[in-house]
Request: fold
Amino acid sequence: MAKSIQPAWAGKLRKQLKRAGEKDSDFSRFGADGHKYRLKPPASEETIAAFETRFGVSLPEAQWPG
Reply:
C-alpha cells in the first residue's frame, strides 16, 4: 500500500479539529452541524478536471514542502 503524502500542517489541523469537536460535542458553534469537525476526502482528479473545464482555469499542481 502506498503511503499517503500529506503536508506537515495536516496532522496539526486534525488534532485541532478533534479538540474543537470535544469542546463542542453538541455542534452548537456556527456551521459545526454541517462539518462536525471533520475534513472531507480530497477531490478526485476527475472532479478537479471538471472544475477546471467548467470555470476555464488551470489549477497548479500540489507542491508539498519536504
Notes: The chain is about 45% helix and 0% strand. The mean pLDDT is 88. The longest helix spans residues 9-23.
